[in-house]
Amino acid sequence: MAKRGPTYTCQACGAVYHRWQGKCDSCGTWSSLSEEAQAAPVQGARAASSGKARGRVFALESLKGDTQDAPRIVSGIGELDRVTGGGFVPGSVLLIGGNPGIGKSTLLMQACAALALAGRRVVYVSGEESTGQVRLRAERMGLAEAPVELAAETNVEDIIATLGQGARPALVVIDSIQTMWSGEVESAPGTVTQVRGSAQSLIRYAKTSGACLILVGHVTKDGQIAGPRVVEHMVDAVLSFEGEGAHAFRILRGQKNRFGATDEIGVFEMTGMGLSEVTNPSALFLAQRDQAAPGAAVFAGIEGTRPVLVEIQALVAPTSLGTPRRAVVGWENSRLAMVLAVLETHGGLRLGQHDVYLNVAGGLRVNEPAADLAVAAALVSSLTGAILPPESVYFGEIALSGAIRPVSVAGARLREASKLGFEAALMPSGGADAGDGSGLNLRRFGHVTELVADIAANAPRKDVK
Ligand code: TYD
Ligand code: MG
After folding, report:
1. Cβ(421)–Cβ(445) under 8 Å?
2. Fewer CB in a 10 Å sphere around the end CB: N or C, the chain?
3. 3-class state of residue 21 by DSSP
């Protein structure tokens, strides 16, 4: 039989050790281990291991059969419904993560109020704020009249017992899962074991009752949903709410979704009256563009199913350091290193003595390789001092050979650019769907040398070879 005794659980990743140690071997975090009582074995597990268990016999089904489309609870907040895949699914569990103060509670209160006003039973349980605080916020947003049922509670058994009274709620919000504790778990509140146990009980409630459950989760410095990563595996959808402190707008991003596409984004702006939807994000991201400066290129990107235009800014400046500096905001470091290497090797640029800074304007995070061409154009523009034509958009993936590769959904990118008044698109020369009806001047490039030559032709400084 396994040795029973105290165990030590990493509060960052949930790895379990029998001995205390300073650093978690699994995730590398220091001082994250804390002593926890071992979770009681799952009922029936002991019997099963003795080999005498007789399980319940259940019927197996075939893949083909009658299934209903999951009915959706539409909040009416378009940007939120888009990310959830068309509304909340009854009996499903969503986890919303985000930095403190980003607006998770605000967004969820708005969703609750919208559903409650539409006649659904909605319960909002806050473990962090008193009902007075929640009420004050709702008042400030003009939502005080919405019949949302409020509670400031942290005990999971009490919450589930209360929810069992009266009609089944359509939506239950738990703000936040880290503040919940269950009497069935012998561990201090806030520990991984507690969070996991509480989440399990709440998820079981959602699955059996058919209520949609939203859990709010805190996020650590490195962007993980703090405490148990296991919660991410237990839920049906994980959404993250992101934004830069200095910017008023916020992006809700799907990371996992069993009922819809991931990579969808919803864009909001934080105002004095709560979050307002931004239905045309491209216009917002391009709002304060300085068109007369070198080093800026507009990237025609795709976020989920939606085209989003965003400005990529580069600054290439002679370095005073032994090792030049490379700093990136909103894009991948390794991807920048690759584009720089390709520009040096195949484009003939000399960047070894230059610091390189790259920024995606407005705080958006771009994950697409299709941004390579816009990044390359911005870098070459900054290095040569050549201003890129402000009415052009860029997209295309750059291969290590320097070839510019076609990317998906070119048509949607072009149409969005055309809609926003752009006149030209610099894009890969291959690719099937291109330019249909966009009316843009399509300038196609097959290799980075062509791009560099094209930009350098307008350069005021001719010192670049
Ligand atoms: P909150 O929803 O409490 O964030 P979270 O739950 O993610 O921690 O949002 C808090 C911030 O939002 C706070 O800094 C104030 C700001 N805010 C506004 O600017 N306008 C508003 O109408 C509201 C309600 C909040
Ligand atoms: Mg909050």
Report:
1. no
2. N
3. coil
309 with 297: CB under 8 angstroms? no
Residue 167 Cα to ligand 1 middle (Å): 31
Residue 390: which of 305, 297, 254, 282 has the closest Cα?
A: 297
What is the tens place of the pLDDT at every residue in 136-170? 999 999 998 999 999 999 999 999 999 999 899 99
Of the listed ligands, the closest to the CA of 96 is 1
Dihedral of alpha carbons 74, 78, 84, 85, sign = positive
Helices (H), 118-191: 131-140, 156-163
Q: Is the CB of 270 under 6 A from ligand 1?
A: yes
Protein residue whose Cα sits closest to atom 21 of ligand 1 = 274
Query: Which H, E and C letters describe 227-243, residue by residue?
Result: CCCHHHHHCCEEEEEEC
Closest atom of ligand 1 to CA, residue 137: 24
Pocket test for ligand 1, best of 102, 126, 175, 270 (most atoms within 8 A of CB): 270
Asked whether 141 lines ligand 1 (CB < 6 A), one says yes
> Residue 242: nearest ligand to its CA?
1
Question: How far does the centroid of ligand 1 lie from the alpha carbon of residue 192, in Å?
Answer: 27
Is 78-279 in CATH node 3.40.50.300? yes
Helix or strand run (H / E) with residue 341: helix 333-347
With a 6 Å cutoff on the Cβ, whether 103 touches ligand 1 is yes
Report the separation in Å between the CA atom of 115 and the middle of ligand 1, taken as the mean of its atom positions: 20
Tell me, what amino acid is at 119? Answer: G
Q: Is 55 exposed, middle or buried (0-12, 13-18, 19+ CB in 10 A)?
A: exposed
Residue 190 DSSP code:
T
Nearby residues of 282 by Cβ (< 8 Å), 6 or more positions away: 307, 308, 309, 310, 416, 420
Tokens of 256: 């996992």
Residue-averaged pLDDT of the chain: 86
Name residues with Cβ closer than 5 Å to ligand 2, which is an ion: 105
Architecture of domain 283-458: 2-Layer Sandwich (3.30)
Amino acid sitting at position 437: G
Alpha carbon distance 95, 213 (integer Å)? 9
Separation CA 184–CA 215 (nearest Å): 20
List, for residues 101-134, the tens digit of each pLDDT value: 899 999 999 999 999 999 999 999 999 999 999 9
* Ligand sitting nearest the alpha carbon of 99: 1
Residue 202 is classified by DSSP as: H
Specify the DSSP class assigned to residue 30.
B
- Spatial neighbors of 267 by CB under 8 A, at least 6 apart, are 79, 249, 250, 251, 252, 277, 278, 281, 284
